[in-house]
Amino acid sequence: MHHFTYDQLAARIVFGAGRARTALAGEISRLGAERVLVIASTRDAERVASLVEPLGELVAGTFTAVREHVPLPTAEAARAAASEVRADAVLAIGGGSTVGAAKAVALTARLPVVAVPTT
Questions:
Q1: Stretch 19-33: mean pLDDT, rounded?
Q2: Which of 20, 33, 38, 80 has its CB 3.0 to 4.6 Å from that of 89, i.e. a possible disulfide?
């Protein structure tokens, strides 16, 4: 499989087998982030742990109360979690509900989102 990086105005795509594990810390550092809120469901805990392990102290907190279609209480809880840990970026690992929760945080907190889609 080939690797590639694609930059576009409001988005940057880094693609390739194993790139989530090898490029994630660099992408977060590229944003200047120092306190990342990880948003991920508990159903993929082993994969999430493997991906965030290299981030070490960059991980300020984790939000796992992800719900399908991101109901308002879930969005509010994710926003509160980001505020509580003083996050300066959000890392979403998972499917659409996880990415949706990260976007709900970004909408009001104006934080960058790094997404690792797994579906």
A1: 93
A2: 33
In this prediction, residue 1 carries a pLDDT of 63
End-to-end CA distance of the chain: 18
pLDDT at 9: 67
Gap between the Cα atoms of 78 and 68, Å rounded: 14
Angle CA 107–61–104, to nearest 5: 15
Structure tokens at 12: 């940057």
pLDDT at 24 (0 to 100): 94
- pLDDT reported for residue 84: 98
Q: How far is CA 77 from CA 53, 66, 81, 116, in A?
A: 24, 10, 6, 21
The strand order across the sheet containing 59-63 reads 59-63, 36-39, 89-94, 113-117
List all residues 6 or more positions away from 49 whose beta carbon is below 8 Å from its beta carbon.
none
